[in-house]
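User: Reviewer 2 asked us to show a designed sequence for the structure in our supplementary figure. I'm pasting the structure tokens here. Could you produce the per-position amino acids so we can include them in the response letter?
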């Protein structure tokens, strides 16, 4: 019994792009990538049909940068609040600053 190969998304995209270039026939691509020509056709069709999704969502790096910026802003606010609480507690004689 043979097991199915699992191909990464990057590999599938590479094959689909090669198929879209049409520099080689499906049979040649199938031989080069060790795939069935029908599989290449399916990946090519899916690549074309879902290509608009690439432009409808923001790049992960931009999203990560936005989350990071928000986290740094939150850290800054929390540090200010902590400093304020320390000052107030010292002035009221509540607790020691070494514990906060």
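Assistant: Here is a per-position design you can include in the supplement:
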């Amino acid at each position: 019994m043979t097991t199915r190969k699992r191909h990464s998304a990057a590999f599938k995209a590479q094959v689909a792009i090669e198929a879209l270039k049409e520099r080689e026939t499906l049979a040649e691509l199938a031989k080069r990538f060790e795939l069935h020509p029908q599989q290449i056709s399916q990946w090519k069709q899916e690549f074309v049909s879902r290509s608009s999704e690439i432009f409808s969502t923001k790049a992960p790096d931009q999203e990560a940068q936005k989350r990071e910026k928000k986290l740094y802003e939150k850290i800054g606010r929390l540090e200010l609040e902590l400093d304020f609480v320390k000052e107030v507690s010292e002035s009221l004689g509540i607790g020691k600053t070494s514990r906060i």
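For the response letter, you might also mention the following. Residues 27 and 50 are 24 Å apart (CA to CA). The mean pLDDT is 89.
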